[in-house]
Amino acid sequence: MSKQKVMVGMSGGVDSSVTAAVLMLEGYDVSGVTLRLYDGEDYESGISKTCCSMSDVEDARAVCCRLGIPHYVFNFKQRFNEKVIKNFIDEYKNGRTPNPCIECNRRIKFDEMLNRAKLLGYDKIATGHYASVDRREDGRWLLKRAKDRNKDQTYVLYSLTQEQLSRTLFPLGALSKPQVRELACNYGFENAKKPDSQDICFVPDGDYAAFIERYTGKQSQSGEYVDVNGNFLGKNNGVIRYTIGQRKGLGIALGKPMFVISKDAQSNRVVLGDEALLFYRRVLVNDLNFIPFDELHGEMRVTAKLRYRHTEQPAVIRPCDGGVLIEFDEPQRAPSPGQAAVFYDGDTVVGGGTIVKGIE
Questions:
Q1: Which of 76, 268, 322, 331 gives the lowest tally of CB atoms within 10 Å of its CB?
Q2: Alpha helix locations (H) across 120-187?
Q3: Residue 45: pLDDT above 90?
Q4: Contact of 24 with 67, CB cutoff 8 Å
Q5: What is residue 110's DSSP assignment?
Q6: What is the pairing mode between strands 141-145 and 71-75?
Q7: Cα angle vertex 170, ends 119, 178, to 5°?
Q8: pLDDT at residue 263 greater than cutoff 50
Q9: How many angstroms separate the CA atoms of 307 and 309, rounded?
Q10: How many angstroms separate the CA atoms of 177 and 10, rounded?
C-alpha cells in the first residue's frame, strides 16, 4: 500500500519544521511548501518576530534538506493582497477590528494551499497549528483543542469546513511547546530556538494606522472625540488609530480615565466614556461557521471567547435575526465589531463568527 502524500505548510519556524519531521516518523510521504504571501524584507532589520521573509524561506528549505524531503515555494502574494490585506484595510477604515490571521487561514492556507495540494496529487495538508482533528462515529469531522492549552490555536481555525478538516493534519495537537523545541534540537534543526512570530506579518511593528496610510497613500483625517451624549470633548487623529477599550494614547486630558467606547467611521467620531460602559452581557455574531453540525437550531450551552487572549466564559448561544446571540453569564469587556467570537463545548470547537456589536 502506498504512503499517503502530505504537503506541509512550512513557515521557517520551529512548529512547522517539527510537524514535517513527526509526519515522516509516522510513515507519510512528506513534502514541504512555503507560501510567499508578503514581502517582509523591509522590516527584517531589528525586528526578529516577523514572517514571510526570504530568511524564513531559507530556514524552511534548510529543514527540508536535512529531512531529505522536497521543498517548494508557492507565490500567493496577489491572492493574499486581495483577500487578506485589502480586507484588513477596509475593515479598519469602516471602524471595525479585523483579525487577518483568521482570514489568512480561511482564504489562503486552508483554501488556496489545499486546492493546490489536491491538484498536485496530495492526499492531505498539514500545518504547525496547535490543535487536533477527530472524527465522530457518524463520520462528522471535529476540531479539538490542543493538549497544551497555553498554545491552543483553535480560535483562529474555527472557520474550517468539513472538507478542509477531512484533509488536514495537526500533528502538534498532543505536544507542548517545550516538547516541540526539544524535538527540533534532537533533529538538529538550526531554527530550534527561533522565536515565535507574534505580529501580523505585514505590520510587524504593530502600527496599523501607519501601514494603512502607506498602503493607501492617504493620511487619516482628524475627527472629534465625543461623550456618549454626543458632546464635543476634543480632536482625535482618525478612527483607524483607535480600538475599542483603549485608554492610553488618546492624547486628551479629561480629569479622569476615559476609554474608547465606540467608533463611527462615517463621521470620524470616537466616543469616550467610563470603563463600565464597555461591558456587555449579550453579543450579536454573524458570518457563522459551525463544525459539529451545519446549523444551530436552538439554545446551546457553551463557553465563548471574544478575542484570542480572552479567557473563555460560560454562555448560551441561540439563533436570532441577523445571526446568533451570545448571552454570557457575566458581562464581558469590549466586544469589538470585526473580531471573532468562538464557541466551545469542552474541548470541541462548536464554531464561531464575526462580532457585530454588544447589546445592552
A1: 322
A2: 162-166, 177-187
A3: no
A4: yes
A5: I
A6: unpaired
A7: 140
A8: yes
A9: 5
A10: 17
- Amino acid 54: pLDDT: 78
Q: Examine the pLDDT at 19 and tell me if it is beyond 60.
A: yes
**Dmax (CA) of the chain:** 74
Integer-rounded Cα Rg, in Å, for the chain is 22
Which set of grid coordinates corresponds to residue 317?
448561544
| DSSP state for residue 147 in the 8-state scheme | S
pLDDT given for residue 51 in this prediction: 55
Cell of 197: 512570530
**Cα distance between residue 225 and residue 228, in whole Å:** 10
Checking if the pLDDT of 333 tops 60, the result is: yes
* Set of cell numbers at residue 304: 465563548
Amino acid at 355: I
Give me the helix-helix angle, 14-25 and 177-187, nearest 10°: 70
Residues with a catalytic annotation lie at: 104, 201
Which run of H or E residues covers position 317?
strand 313-320
Nearest to 42 by CA among 203, 274, 248: 203
Comparing C-alpha atoms, which of 92, 54, 98, 166 is closest to residue 339?
98
Helix (H, G, I), strand (E, B) or coil at 182: helix
Cell of residue 210, nine digits? 501607519
- What does 291-354 look like in DSSP terms, one character per residue? SSSS---S-EEEEEESSTTSPPEEEEEEEETTEEEEEEEEEEE---TTSEEEEEETTEEEEEEE
Q: What is the pLDDT of residues 193-217, one digit of tens each?
A: 999 876 788 998 889 999 999 999 9
**φ, ψ at 344 (rounded to 5°):** -130, 145
Residue 258 has pLDDT above 80, yes or no: yes
- From the centroid of its chain, how far is CA 198? 11
For strands 313-320 and 259-264, give the pairing: unpaired
